[in-house]
Design goal:
4 copies of one chain form a homotetramer. By secondary structure, the first copy, chain A, is of the alpha/beta class. Chain A folds into 2 domains: 62 residues, 2-Layer Sandwich (Alpha-Beta Plaits), CATH 3.30.70; 250 residues, Alpha-Beta Barrel (TIM Barrel). Chain A is built from 11 helices and 14 strands. An 8-stranded parallel beta barrel of chain A has the order 7-8-9-10-11-12-13-14, surrounded by 6 helices. Chain A has a 4-stranded antiparallel β-sheet with strand order 2-3-1-4, with helices on one face. Chain A is elongated. The two termini of chain A are 38 Å apart. Chains A and C meet through loops of A and loops of C.
Chain lengths: 337, 337, 337, 337
């Protein structure tokens, strides 16, 4: 149940309402966005309670959200969520490009890639220091060393960095270095990790699980918001289907749908979404044309030498060309890049 | 096996080569496209045969296509297939919009829809006279009466018409009326129907089966080409996945992939692909941005009264707005609309 | 809407009721099973009509089936459908084994296979004379010659024969030879074919479409029953999923579900369902243990030489061993084999 | 690469070989099963290395496993893995039934359920103390209190207990109480958790991810074995497909396949696999008939009051009836229950 307060309500008055609600034995969460006049109520929200709550002064109305993801929904916050990461605004008019190699494989190669990616026009640097790998014998990432290299790349380029956090243990250390923490597709329903990330003071990008419905994806984001973190980015990265030509089936329709259902920014990862570098350009065009707020793209200066996901990585020059085209698409739909 | 002839070969010389190949017990099919200097060979294509074939005068080289869809592949024909339907060029620079109601439900309503669709800027009229329905008790289409109404709409608007053919029995009658014959998703592997359509003198649009891989889809098109019909349009219309929010998952990545693997024009049906009219605009943008040669869109003047698929039909005015945006996307990638 | 008649109603009285219903402008279909006291009503079944129909003498009650597949449902007929094919009872206590090679590849080899299959204990012979193949260049079956060979095998072994019918054109000829007509997975929603088969006087086995839900499968069977053919066998044969180790994912749970929802016999095809001969024995055990009324199994005397589907074919001796085990499982659940 | 030692090799000699291999810069892992004469080698296993390794005394042969899951494969250990949990042997002739409510909801109700489940013939008690829930607002389990209740139930019934561990943090505490630790479907690729569990001294049951291929599932188990835990149970629990009638599609074919590829015991969870209590009996029959080494079944004395997964829970008396039938199926395939 959502309690909408009168728009002239003061903080002090909200406190008063909150107290009354708690006295009824209800849980109360305040909206952290612009809509600070909404309270999310948990507990027994039966008819009787509702009737009483409606009579509390300053309470304008009571809403029962249409979806189980309450704080993530447009019912809870009508305007799009916009926030800043360094100088970069996420969810605003300007589409945001996060790019870089799949994994941080070494200092020199990563710095070179970072330079190239910045040169080409990316806004945020990506790179994996902790890698989830289906084989225990595969390269698992440089871990903290990788984070340090990324931090160096940030200093060098001035671009914020995003990297994946694999488990609760490393939330703290990753948050120490990264500007945005990424939840991978295999962790979308790692609820303990989500709760931890809901309490970290950094933005989180949450990838859609490879077999998650759109509703389950938004529910996973609800874990983050319900814990108090409202700087959340949704990222479509392809779902698992019977088609084997592509690594996954990139569900572009998830973009307009997630944007209609939720106020959170929606990104697309065309690299994992297809697994084929030749598809990255057309699918990036498609994503932006369909309204995505940004992209997460794998770019590698020498894909053939990449320790992971080489076949889906773009060369920096192809990436630069792509940004050029994307810019024009963005303009058509009233955005910039 | 494909036999590529010297480019100066005359028809008479090709006949000679063909005779020699047949004398070896091989089957021979001539390319029907611009590449009339390629022959597709069936039968025992072992090492010995290949060696001998290479020595035949006028034979330049012998190719073993990388895919089982030989005539559909770029190995067989490098340039894109382009053909005309009335005044409309398919597969050329100009993206082509086919639009109209899902089903022809009555003379008056269809003519009104046709007028509106033309007004909005569509190039080809769609409409179903024979409807495949999962329930035997659902509306099955007006059949020949529907075809007659569509023909009247063509006269009235000057636009060519496309309609679905459900079975071999009706190929002839549908071909009598329609300018393009459509194979529905449930019929993509109705091989008898495909063979029949391979021999009809009209273009065929073949929808991807809802659980067909891209390779199976191109193999289905191979049935048409192998029977002599080279005016074939591929149409992605969504695949069946675990996601239930959308009716199907529209696989936009199938567009760049099919276009790389094949010389045939590739269209997208965003209406069946999502089942939600709100998604039609963004997904049409995505399709054109990803390189689709055209769209197949459901437009209905009063979707709520539609006997089938109302929820996925656009209103004519929304459709007109959409075409306006699509035009700009088309221009970015060097096309028109 | 289903109209249930008083159990003492005579044919003459039913005729009278039928006339009255038709006078209301309603369509009427009589149950063809044991429940000859049920009428299926199509047309406007609104409140007013229902109220009037209830007052007609001999009408005991009016049912609105819970599912769109009305005549296929248990609402329409509570007892299981049982019918005979030659001496073999389908849907009764005794589980029925249909076996043989995927395709009829030649007279001698088929007769040899038929002999082996009979020897091993099969009740019905299978074999494909018309083959649906994803490539136009693959072996397409011996067609009528194949049917003749199957008929010869029937004379020789005394076993009834089942074979696939690919399209309406060949319904008549296949029905001339075969005892059961099989609808393949790709044709499950070939509605024209279904209507035709609904009017043929022979039993039909309808395979589940590889991407069909259980409801769609039962709806396809409804096409057959609604046209008057009530000798219908449902056959689960594996659905298309992301798993690639098996050719399809055999959905054993479809057996208890289809049997609960419908009165029709339910068979399982473990050969296509897995594509691996090693899985045929365990999955056949699973199918019978889960309550399947029978199996459709590929058996081939020399799988390596098979023109199609060799890897999923059992050798006759392994098949005989399997029947031995199946017999014991059947007994546990109160059946025989 | 696997190095197979001569069967008369002494521990001392193996130490010697191990030293030599390490001197080549290779990683060495000893088989923990009966096959203590096999070493798993990681590092550069090129031709040169292999040639040298073959010449080391006591080395009988060198194997390159056909699959990426080396220690999990039959190449590594031919005989089935068998181990004891309390008095219960897992992977042996006797099929093992683990049963109980989905979640521990309270002391009294759980003890009652445990009693009923024991009475009915179960061998191991199941119950969830930590629950992964797609909504942050749903019941998340009693946590340590739940573990204590389960331990009490163990004392009372004498049955070992199995419960889920959700994250690395709680591995230690769960291991303090439980006899078997369960990895849920959403955690199958939580690699950090797997590594941790590879080092715990307790058996682990790993459920197949709802969108994991059989190969990925076995790779996940490889994480456990490669860390030294060889008491691992594989558990098929249904995969996500387009079918919505069942909660998941229970892939029974995964049983014979996993058993052929791996030496680990394979269990089936028919409750989550179908989500429908009516399907639990037939699917349990199917699982045992297909060769499963055991089952994980939800049983609840009053399913309607269950806080989670009531619709898929069996009543104790239905469960007892089922065990009776399963016993007979087990006997047919040379097992007991």
């Amino acid at each position: 149940m959502l309690v909408v307060m009168n728009s002239r309500t003061t903080d002090c008055e909200i406190n008063e309402v909150e107290k009354q609600l708690k006295d009824f034995g209800l849980g109360v969460q305040r909206s952290h966005g612009k809509n600070r006049f909404i309270l999310r109520i948990s507990g027994d929200c039966g008819l009787e309670t509702t009737t009483v709550v409606k009579t509390i002064p300053y309470v304008e109305k009571v809403i029962f959200p249409s979806y189980p993801f309450e704080m993530v929904s447009r019912d809870y916050q009508e305007e799009k969520t916009v926030f800043k990461v360094g100088e970069v605004e996420i969810g605003a008019e300007k589409a945001v490009i996060m790019a870089g190699p799949c994994a941080v494989e070494g200092r020199e190669s990563y710095l070179r890639a970072a330079e190239a990616v910045k040169e080409a026009g990316a806004h945020i640097l990506r790179g994996g220091a902790y890698k989830p790998r289906s084989s225990p014998y595969a390269f698992q990432g440089l871990e903290e060393e990788g984070l340090k290299i990324m931090a160096e790349a940030r200093s060098m380029t001035g671009l914020p960095i995003i990297t994946e956090v694999l488990d609760q243990y490393s939330v703290e250390i990753v948050a120490d270095y990264a500007d945005i923490l990424q939840v991978g597709t295999r962790n979308m329903q790692n609820f303990k990790l989500l709760r931890e990330l809901g309490q970290v003071g950094k933005p989180v990008l949450i990838k859609r699980g490879m077999s998650a419905t759109i509703e389950e994806w938004l529910m996973a984001a609800e874990y983050l918001l319900s814990e108090g973190n409202d700087k959340v980015i949704l990222c479509e990265r392809g779902i698992r289907t019977f088609e084997t030509y592509t690594r996954n089936t990139l569900d572009i329709s998830a973009v307009p749908i997630a944007k209609e259902l939720s106020h959170l920014p929606v990104f697309v990862d065309p690299s994992h979404g297809t697994g084929l570098w030749k598809c990255v350009h057309p699918m990036s065009m498609a994503a932006i044309a369909a309204g995505a707020d940004g992209l997460l793209v794998e770019v590698h200066p020498s894909p053939k030498e990449a320790l992971c996901d080489g076949p889906q990585s773009l060369l920096p020059d192809k990436f630069a060309l792509m940004l050029n085209s994307l810019k024009k698409v963005a303009e058509i739909i009233g955005r910039t890049l």
